[in-house]
Amino acid sequence: MKVYPNIFSNNPVDRVSDLRSDPEWVKKTLKSDKTMIALFWRGKAFVSTVRNLISGHADADQLSPAWFPLDFFKNQLTDQDNLIFLGLIGDMSFFAVDLSRLSNPEDVLGLNELGNFEDLMVLAPQSIDPGELAMIGQAKAIFEWNNSHQFCSRCGEESVMVEAGYKRICHKCNSEHFPRTDPVVIMLATYKDTAFLGRQKRFPPGMYSALAGFIEPGESIEEAVARELKEEAGIEIVKAEYHSSQPWAFPNSLMIGYIAESTSENFKLDEVEIDEGRWFTKDELKETINGNNKNGFFVPPPMAIAHHLIKAFVENKK
Ligand SMILES: [Zn+2]
User: Regarding the domain delimited by 17-148, which CATH topology (the fold level of the hierarchy) does it fall under?
Assistant: First the structure.
């Protein structure tokens, strides 16, 4: 399959959804000596530089996700620790466990000398194997969903995680609940040799990016692209073309990247949403994307899909 540039994409696992729904298969697979388990604690993944805990792809001294065999835990995992299945790679099986119930998992499991729990936002820009970043992004999204959906939305009773993390059921009203992914459109509006970027108030000084927003119920992706550009910047478009997408587990989004063609260079900012915005020339963007900030602005780094939309525009690959 084609390799996409977006961080958290290109997940190498086979999710075998037919197998993971069988609790006996999950139990047997977990106990196999070809199983590896990643650790999570309160939204952070455990990373290490210890050679036999990290994959062969990792550079020396580069923190990478740590993978533990089941016997490392010496029966310290309980039913209260959410244990989820990520998938298979060849004959290896990958799981992740959420240790958030522990106030200090480092002491309980003897992790202090081995590494530390780290935020995925901190890990994403580093030179970590892209497949492993995608796998820990997958784990984070599933944990986020389970942790924020502990109770049945139909009757309010506590629900139970089943199917290795991909479903919750309510034993009181028998309803089934499935993981939620929130689709977000992120789009680069273009007009001739220019593209429109804006600044949200929360951005660091000098940073401009593509505009973005949640897709609303009953709306197509293309309609959301057109609506967001109209609402946030008063930009009317004639067409919108899909570029690529990016799972974004902060907490449960899927970023859907588009490049859109504007009818004119007219715009009018929604000043509540957008602090500043303007059309940038392809030459300006080319310098900025190559790391030259002499024009007094910069764009998001390669971990963000916005970077790749801008790059596609300056390289005429839209
Ligand atoms: Zn219920």
Answer: Nucleoside Triphosphate Pyrophosphohydrolase (3.90.79)
